[in-house]
Amino acid sequence: MYGKAFAPEYQGALTGLSVNASLADVLAAGTERLRAAEREGSAAEAARSGLAVAEAHRRLGNVAEADRAWKASYRAARSAGDTAAMAWALWSGGTLARQRGALALSWRLLSLAAELGERGGDVVARGYSLAGLAETGRIQGDYEAVGALHEQLLAEARRRGEARHTVWALEGIAQMHRNNGSYDSAYALFAEAAGIAERADDRRGHAWALRGLADILSARDKDTDRALELLSEAEAACREMRLAGALAYNHKMRGNVLYRAARWAEARDLYEQALAEFREMGEPRGEALARLGLVKSLARLGRDREETAADLASLARDLERIGLRHSRRMVLAAYEELGVGHRAAGPEAGR
């Protein structure tokens, strides 16, 4: 039903790059081809190769370079009159904005990308842009608003037999089920995603699916050993492909698994590692989640209750500012879990 996974963001002369190519290799090839296109005066090819450069930088955590690259790709596409390439550049910019915590900007860029993708007749650009909108809403915790969009995109991806996009949609739906406490359905969806990704040779999607399975094995089944095994398998793929963001989230999840197993000192060390990784790549959502885990671990290790409460209040304010409602609810739950008083955590703190 599904063919081998491919990376539609690798375009023009770079279409032969594998979805599993090392990001260092993608960056090198994309930069070389971009310079050649600029020398040749080919704006269309500069836009397409510049997209790969932007995406490699983004996934490597090089935020400033990624920002410059997607904007240059958009300018080149506009100069060439290539509407579809403009859509892809805006998709990259919107994805970067979400990664940086600029959710309103992400929504604007991805909405425009979806519109241009449809106008330019690029169904994949439109689909990826709508998927970006769905993911932006999902990480904000607005499941009711984007749940139907996830299901729509899953159905479209299944019809096209597009493995990578199917895996993404399954993982997004699974995460919403997991966050709502529906562990069994979430596990089934993550397992389906893992199977499709493995058969399609989508190592990135497979690594994310393994992370989801590990989370549920830990939270539902208390199977710490198996959860850590899956995370180790996923980490190997992340390191080989140099997926900085996925690796940081893997480390954060390993911290979660260890925390649930009451191995708080080990969890603290993993949260500190993930926090440094998120800060290096300018990823405020991941940073906040790692901070939360670190605060909880330190509290379990005997940290002063007043200091814990103050840190939780600071986290709640930061998450309110970013607009991450589900993550903020996790902070409020931590007050109860740790038995510390609320500290000016925002309008919902006393509820």
TrEMBL record:
Question: What lineage is this protein's organism placed in?
Answer: Bacteria, Bacillati, Actinomycetota, Actinomycetes, Kitasatosporales
Q: Where is the chain membrane-spanning?
A: none
What's the name of the protein? Tetratricopeptide repeat protein
Question: Known InterPro entries for this protein?
Answer: TPR-like_helical_dom_sf
Give the species this sequence originates from: Streptomyces glaucosporus
Q: Which domain of life is it from?
A: Bacteria
PANTHER family (alphabetical): HTH-TYPE TRANSCRIPTIONAL REGULATOR RV0890C-RELATED, REGULATOR-RELATED
Sorted alphabetically, which Pfam families does this protein's record hold?
A: TPR_12
